Amino acid sequence: MDGLRHINHAAYLSYMETARLDYYLYLGFAPERWDEEESTILASMQVDYIGQVTHPAVLEVGQRISRVGNKSFDILTAVFREGEETPIVQANFTLVAFNYKAGRSIRVPDVFRSQCH
Hints:
Blueprint: H1 9-27, E1 39-49, E2 59-68, E3 72-81, E4 89-99, E5 104-105, H2 110-113
């Protein structure tokens, strides 16, 4: 909670990052892959704050891959109050498939490609 008695805008970024890592695990893609040939790196984010939440509150985070390109993909993310359909925050994260050893972008792994409908 911040000085205005609502959950601070930066806290939502942490919630969404945690959810993204959980989503990676759900897909079978371990997020700690810095020594691997296939990993990802955050390239950009657009965040829209729609409402506010005061503490305490139970929040839910929903995610889906909304676009897959050659070397990047987007994850659309929304944070909701438990049981509500209107998001409090929605964001689009663009991630680049990346080889940390070589220090360069790579083709988006199939595990992410298969999730875009």
